[in-house]
Amino acid sequence: MFIAWEASVRLFGIREFVLPAPSAIWAATIAIWPTVLGHTWTTLVTVLLGFFASVAISLPLAMLIASSRAISAAIYPLLVITQSIPKVALAPILIVALGANELPRVIVTFLVAFFPLVVGTVAGLLATPPELIELGRACRAGRWQEMLRIRLPFAIPFVFGGLKVAAALAVVGAVVAEFVGADAGLGYLIQTSMAFFRTPLAFGAVVILALMGIVLFQAVALVERIFFPWSSGSEHAPPAV
Amino acid sequence: MIRIAHTHKTFRGRDGTAVEALRDISFDMAEGEFVAIVGASGCGKSTLLRLVAGLVPLTSGSIVLGGEEVRGPRAETAMVFQAATLLPWADVLRNVTFPLRLMGRMAADTEEKARALLATAGLAGFDTKLPRELSGGMQQRVAICRALLQEPRLLLMDEPFGALDALTREEMSLELLRLWAARRMAVLFVTHSIPEAVLLADRVVVMSPRPGRIVDVVEVKLPRPRSFEQEGEDEFQRCARRIRAHIFGDRASRAA
């Protein structure tokens, strides 16, 4: 794919500030490598803070929602509202309120990541087969024992599905926040390079962002494979007959 | 030990219609007695089991277990379901000890006892396997061990061999009798197989559907230990015939 890209840029003489060749992207990025690294780090910190904040809040919230229909009816509309607000519009408001520092960017990242996580977790908690719930009742499990020992373990595959989506979205959220108000980070780098028509550098930042998303996604998948091997589905032992 | 007196159970559907699942069930069970419940589908035998288990509230009447009325699941009752219902994320050992852990009854030697129990059930060395690595028969054996580890006074079994193939069923029946003989707790065993009921039980309760009620209690006077060789004996055939007559009786008389 990169070969075709490089070839077509040279063949058709595409101007560098429209679509740079991969070789140009590489050269521009390497030239100011330490600066790029600094921006990458800034964005990464925002992404990780927002991601872990969303995990810390989503899981208990999902358990609360799944445990009672009344709570579910009360909270769900609020959640949907948070999702309907465009983050691009919300970010400037937050920055005005909280200052152009890390916090509004982390909040935007959090808002973007936590909805799929809550929805996925609730779906998993409520999908527990009735036989397992009956087993819990026969063992005289209380509501919270049932939640923690039966529903939550059953929901793990669903939670990790949500985590993977949240990881990818967290990267998007951080960049959106940086577009709106930041003085560092890959989003900022993209904006400033585009402003100076240094397109190869902007593309370089985009590539790094894509890699960041992929690495986070794979990290989540790896955690699932290591700690919850029964969840990731791939098992080598065939069933005994 | 168990006294069921004039128990009725009516389910109310979402549209308000009432379904009378059980009518006027009265029955006593002694300590250590093995009782089977046989009946066609829909005769309420699973409902009756769940009433005794305390999982479903009764509409009227009373069920007294060990001197106290059944108001909810009891510590001295253990249940085996038709599907093995093992926790897919836990290995065999954790599955077997799950009820005790949930009820806070784990002792220092519980895991040792669990391993010994698994060994007597032919599952030695399977402690760390996950349920999906086991066959249906093995999973059900784990479920039975899980119930037995609770050292119950009453073991409730809801068609536990229903999901198994015929050969495994035969093997599991003998296995169950062996495990039971060492412990002799009271067993209430729901099945829709007449030969299985006669082979396993001291007494067979015959139920008929719509509404569910007891039509007969057949005493099986076969000596223990039981085996499939006894299928040829007169007493076995007499009991089976009597049960069959109740279940298929009106169909037979209509055909004749």
Describe the structure.
By secondary structure, chain A is mainly alpha-helical. Chain A has a domain at 49-182 and 208-226: MetI-like fold, CATH 1.10.3720. Chain A has ten helices and no strands. Chain A has helices at 2-12, 22-31, 33-67, 69-84, 87-98, 102-126, 130-138, 143-180, 186-195, 199-227. In chain A, α3 (33-67) packs antiparallel against α4 (69-84), α5 crosses α6 (102-126) and α8 runs antiparallel to α10 (199-227). The longest helix of chain A has 38 residues, at 143-180. The termini of chain A are far apart. Chain B has 256 residues and is of the alpha/beta class. Chain B has two domains: 2-76 and 153-255, P-loop containing nucleotide triphosphate hydrolases (Rossmann fold); 86-151, no CATH class. Chain B is 35% helix and 25% strand. Chain B contains seven helices and ten strands. Chain B has a six-stranded mixed β-sheet, with helices on both faces. Chain B has a four-stranded antiparallel β-sheet with strand order 2-1-4-5, covered by helices on one side. In chain B, α2 (92-102) packs parallel to α4 (136-149), α3 crosses α4 and α6 (194-200) packs antiparallel against α7 (234-255). Chain B is globular. The relative contact order of chain B is 0.18. Classes of the chains: A mainly alpha (241), B alpha/beta (256).
Keywords:
heterodimer; A: about 240 residues; mainly alpha; MetI-like fold; elongated; disordered C terminus; B: about 260 residues; alpha/beta; Rossmann fold; 2 domains; 6-stranded mixed sheet; 7 helices
Mean pLDDT of chain B: 89
Secondary structure: number of strands of chain B: 10
Quickly give the CATH architecture of the largest domain in chain B.
Answer: 3-Layer(aba) Sandwich
As for the CATH topology of the domain at 49-182 and 208-226 in chain A, it is MetI-like fold
User: CATH superfamily membership of the domain at 49-182 and 208-226 in chain A, which one?
Assistant: MetI-like
**Fraction of residues of chain A in helices?**
over 70%
Oligomer kind? heterodimer
Can you write the helix and strand succession of chain B as a string?
A: EEEHEEEHHHEHEHEEH
CATH topology of the largest domain in chain B: Rossmann fold
Shape of chain A: elongated
* Largest sheet features of chain A: none
CATH class of the largest domain in chain B: Alpha Beta
Order of helices and strands of chain A: HHHHHHHHHH
Beta-strand content of chain B: 25-35%
Number of helices of chain A: 10
The helix/strand class of chain B is alpha/beta
Main sheet of chain B?
6 strands, mixed
**Class of the domain at 49-182 and 208-226 in chain A, according to the CATH hierarchy?**
Mainly Alpha
Structural class of chain A: mainly alpha
The two chains with the largest interface, and their residue counts, are: A-B, 24 and 25 residues
